[in-house]
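task queued by scheduler; priority normal; single chain, no ligands, no partner chains; default sampling; output format set to structure tokens
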Amino acid sequence: MEIMDDILDLADLLGEKLEKGRRATRRALRGEGGFSTLVTVLVILALGAMIITPLLVWVITGQRAGEAHERVTHRFYAADAGIQDGMYRIATGDIPDEWLGTWDDSVYDADPIEYTLPEQMNDCDVTVKLRPMWLLAGLEDPSYGREPHGELVTVSNIVGGGSMQIVIVSDNPGNYKLTRIGVWIPEGFTYTMGSSNIEELSPTDPAYCEPTVSEWRNGHTIIFEYATAVDFVDFPGVTGNRMVITFDYEGTGTMATSWSWCRTSRMDIYLSWSGDIKLYQVESTATDPDTGLSTTVIAGNMTNESVGTYLAFYGDYTTTGNALMRETGTDRVRDRLYEESPGEISDIPTSGTARKILLYWSGWKESPDDAWYGNTSKDVSTWPTEDQAALQLLADTYCVNQVSLRVEYEGYSYDLGVIDASEWTVLPNGSAWSPNGWSYGCNADITDLVLTTLPDDFVGNATYWVGHADLGGESLPSDETLQGIWGSADNDIYIVGNTGTVLHYNLSTWETQDSETSRNLRGVWGSDNTHIWAVGASSAIQKYTGTWADQSRSDGRSETLNGVWGSSATDVWIVGDRFRTWDGQYRHTILHTTDGGTNWTNDGYSITSAQDLNGIWGSDSSHVYAVGTSGRIMRYNGSAWGTMSSGTTRELYGVWGTAWNNVYAVGASGTILRYNGTSWSSMSSGTTQTLYGIWGSAEDDIYAVGAGGTIQHYNGTSWSDVDSGTNRNLYGAWGTSSTNVYVVGEATSKASTILHWDGSEWAAVGGGTGLWGWHLPHSGDTSPTVTTDYPLSDVVNNEWANACWSVITLYTSPVTLAHQMYLFDTFRYWNSNDDVTFTLDGFLAPASVASEDDAVKLTYFVGEGDSWYGNGDNVYVNGTRLNPSYINPATCAPINNAMNSTSNSGGITGYLPDDGIDLDTYSIDGSSGIIKPADSSATVRLTTGTDVWNMMYMILSFRSDTVGTGLLTYIVL
């Protein structure tokens, strides 16, 4: 009877709302109603489950059974151990890789993961099944897809102090009408009716709604339902593409997690929720091998994989990094650049697991000298759209969004190749009145790359080497823009470009040939390898017969010549810009030689036209085509030139064909025309970019190239876009087969552009070393004591010069206390005498911050800070200056010189006083009161004096007893 009394006392705790259930339980325990002992225990367990404190990872649920039937209890305890094991695997990420990314239908439809605990529990065999579950199952229709959409994202923010936000972010608010907004909150918390900004609207407002509150998965759903869809922009809390629905809740303790969703009137994007929220079903069955009887327990477990949320995890973060520059003299100028530099991570416990590895790098470029584009605002978001786009394009143009990466681990070096930034930001340096080039900040998630490359026992400790990206192939002996290409064979290729550049390829090396001119060359063609012509600016005509020599025009004219083609070594045509005669009439430039270039005549002199001719091609001496401005197409029939109707007024740049009656012309705005022997007709190109060149190996294998790295391919039926891997303008194409095609184009300040197609992918040919755009080989420098020949490409005695990098590793470990971590990585530039205040929000400070040492950590990664300017660099949080009181050693961040190129985090070789990087971590103890329990935001203030610097990221971390997984349901079978 003591057992029964204890159970009845437990039932009494449920209060009046459970009166009906309590009476039924009392009858059952007294043997009324025919309940068997097993059913009685299950009722007790179910009753106990109703008062479980939710959202605990390690729930000792066995205590709820009291001292009921021993064998059933033993099986229950054993099954519960399986639940704990499954939840631990989920919490520590010991699950299939496909369960860690974005989930689609294939994840939900796959078979569960099933395993048996290695040892018996209470003399029972325990089998555990893990299965992904759709978060909205039972709430929404899955037929419209169970994969979240990036165009519309819905998340919950627990602000703290009993307030919450539902945040909905849209790519285009005008494209969405909402029919439902919902949120789930856990047991122990209740929605405060009337508290939402939706309910504060006038009842006649289309967005007004009183929510429906229902029990759901050991918690409650609060759903705002609309019979008539409401426009996104008509809801309260809309700013730009972001909607914030606010409401209050009541309860004791700290709410650890919540999730929300919305439904739209669109069928293609019907539902929106956060893909970071994952729901798992953990099913554990304990079987007594002696009796064959079993007990099954099913739990629903939720995780949140996002970084920078209020959820915590058993783990922490660590950082490393280094400078890529140093000062060699005493002139306060970082004038030498490392080929690569190391940084070491060694403090992750051996029981840990690396979960996220992020690489950041930053630097400065002097060229172009003025990145302000005539604007006066420091806020780039206020600039005209075209100026913003031009600024961001600098990163790719100058290759600063690429670095090399290798990792040293247990005596082995793993070359991970070139890392392309997934995100980058370019900001103007200096001020509108004193512009000083531009700063860049880049980052990439290298988690998968590192974890799949290194051995399975890698936990995150390693030495990272970051440096200049090898852009592929042999370094080219040119840094000029290339405009024309032709070859006699795959081992005999000629490329021409600006300043008289001629490159020759012999299948093993590229060499520069002396063209005997410094004029820009725009076109090249040959009849064989000893009869080749290159043409260009100021009527340049250069002929190769083993060496290059100039062929002057007998008429003395100097128009730019754009294209050249011939039917033989003696029959050659050249076209170019229009010219004006003495009577004010414009005429075509169409030069012709029938003696191999000894004499040139202008067959266009008699043709009155205001159009330039840009390209020329022929199938034979009686079928020659030239194209130019205003849609001009000319044809030579063997005796005279005539005009053809093109059907367009857009400028045409290139022409090529497979036969006289299958000719293609390309030009402005993605124009592609085709001639079938009778007339020209327009083709759908699939692009609006200007196309400059065209070549093909056959009728069903043709390439058109153009602006912004555009390459379009024709398969005989339609044109389609091909990823070139660059956004530089491409001007010419040529090849020998479908698996050997070359494209040439615009250069960076220090690297020519040549792409090669091998039948499977486009790859850069040459290009030299990235990050700073070098094209010549250098020995590099990895020691501060070694003299380097790695000079900066465009810096002369400028104190702004800097380049540096950092790696952040997030890890989990069962021996590491739980932490909440918030990563804020908006790239920012601080000019002299700046005083910038901004807010870090979205976190929830736990009670532990009031008492623990190192309860709060703050880390930042800054480039360019100088030690010799110590008159105003300070870091404040909530009005308290952190430097130097909260950093060890204090010399890393003294008063008025927080950004002094001296760091206390990461690295191997140490940090030189003038290397242009600050990677500093501040530890704030709870007694400081800077951050208080339940704080949800912090005001950060950073000031400068004379110094300037760039901040790549800031990390704010709290010790926490809150965990990042939650028990949603618990069912005993």
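post-processing summary
- The longest strand covers residues 219-231.
- The radius of gyration is 35 Å.
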